[in-house]
Amino acid sequence: MNDRKEQKQKWWKESIAYQIYPRSFQDSNGDGIGDLRGIIERLDYLQYLGIDLLWLSPVYDSPNDDNGYDIRDYHGILDEYGTMEDMDELIAEAGKRGIRLLMDLVANHTSDEHAWFIESRSAKDSPKRDWYIWRPGKDGKEPTNWECGFGGSAWEYDEQSGEYFLHCFSPKQPDLNWENPEVRRELYAMIDWWMDKGIAGFRVDAITYIKKNPQFPQLEAEPGRDFAPIEKVSLNQEGILDFLREMKREALEPRGAITVAEAPGVPLEQIGDFVDETDGVFTMLFQFNHVDLDIKPGGKAEFVDWDMKKFKDALSLWQQESNRHGWMGLFLENHDHVRSVSKFGNDGPYRDLSAKMLAAYYFLMRGTPFIYQGQEIGMTNCPFDSIHEYRDIGSLNLFRDETAKGRPAEEILGYLGKRSRDHGRTPMQWNGEREAGFTSGTPWIKVNPNYREINVAENMKNEDSVLQFYRRLIALRREHRSLVYGYYDDLCKESKEVGAYQRTYNGERWVVLCNFTGRSVSLQQLTEIPLDGERVLSNYEDRDQNTLRPYEALVFRWRRK
Ligand code: NOJ
């Protein structure tokens, strides 16, 4: 068919990736903070799980305003995490187990404590002044009414020079000026330096923010609001591809770096520019439509109506397009999002069943699957009791700003209960012992109280656990190239209750069929679904010929004739 393109076989397409949020993975020295030695101790577990690509959220030296996404030194490791020797050891030890590393490339901004920024702010005529984005105020106020991602103005006043600098995220994360070629050269040299260490590449943070609207226009703010979201003028702006293509040419391609772009704001039509096999800039792309469908874009703590039909439509749109262009990084969770079983499944009576169903649904799509730490044991959202238990800067600022505007605290807490990034950041639940085996000290963030029931040790013992189901999925994908390279087609597109698709490759066919609800669905009504294939995997032991039971997932295969 002309809407699909034969794609080259690549090791990273066949990989299974895992994301570690180092602060919450494993503490080895009792300070309550996860660290590199902790990760090294757990490599055998990752090997047992079956992954071969590891994305580490930032471990660089940082004042930790945004948990490491504010880098003070790209060539240093934060003391709390260990040393550069530990990092080298991690790369080597992972390598021995067939696991390659992706570092987090945070190139849109640095920390305000980075030497470049300190020099930049030191004087108006500093040689590094232009490395960041400085503007004089307007009528005694900020240069524009842009609002940063964590609330409040995107401009921070600097007393010393009497000018403002721009930050898309927190004021401690000043944006680098990508228009300046010296900045870009330094960043490429840094990429090179890390590639020399033997890593496979990078997850590329906030990369669609690097180009700003050169007019620096005033924006229209919603009634009652002083500011308007910066995304309109800083996300995927015209001209961004010149920067990205240069970075590919000068830094990524020569080193064969594997890249997964965090690319919010990229419309489907543009997927080819970002991840086409020949012309695209990156190797894989994360899109966010399926995890952000519950909130009003650019809104402040406002939910919108959504259902599982919207969830599957959001995913399938990109799946269908990826038959032609590019390669997706598949995910349900990461450190910026809540736990998938709590959001898309059922974290009550059907917890394990729905966690397995969701796993089967996304894992066998077209792309490279990423598992976020704890997802493989079905970790759930955490019952935070008060605002004092939250740690995330975005959540804390939101609470502060919205309650200051008069919104009831209960309302904002209700929002955070369903949306805070901290749900994905509670410590990894290793066992039923104190603090879930994460630390012998006091954890930096609360451990989810359900750790006695949900933990790795229990999951390892139980043949029927979520973890074992993930292991089976991984084995299945490793065994069958058709699950890697097969084309994707939607089935039961109109159903609100059932998610289904097929993968086809070289005469082989697979069908994945999932019940998104806690009710049984009659199979007779699913006329599009052929049920005569070999049943290869399910989250139920037996087979029911007539119904798809609550949260049931079925995977069928038809061999090549
Ligand atoms: C995206 C990261 O995933 C998030 O955690 C961070 O706050 C922002 N980029 C800013 O770096």
UniProtKB/TrEMBL annotation:
GO terms for biological process: oligosaccharide catabolic process. Belongs to the glycosyl hydrolase 13 family. It is an enzyme of class 3 (hydrolase). This is Oligo-1,6-glucosidase. Gene3D superfamilies: Glycosidases, Golgi alpha-mannosidase II, Oligo-1,6-glucosidase, Domain 2. InterPro entries: GH (IPR017853), GH13_cat_dom (IPR006047), Glyco_hydro_b (IPR013780), O16G_dom_2 (IPR045857). Its EC number is 3.2.1.10. GO terms for molecular function: alpha-amylase activity; oligo-1,6-glucosidase activity. The gene is malL. Residues 19-425 form the Glycosyl hydrolase family 13 catalytic domain. Keywords: Glycosidase, Hydrolase. The lineage of its organism: Bacteria, Bacillati, Bacillota, Bacilli, Bacillales. NCBIfam families: PRK10933.1. PANTHER family: ALPHA-AMYLASE FAMILY MEMBER (PTHR10357), OLIGO-1,6-GLUCOSIDASE 3-RELATED (PTHR10357:SF178).
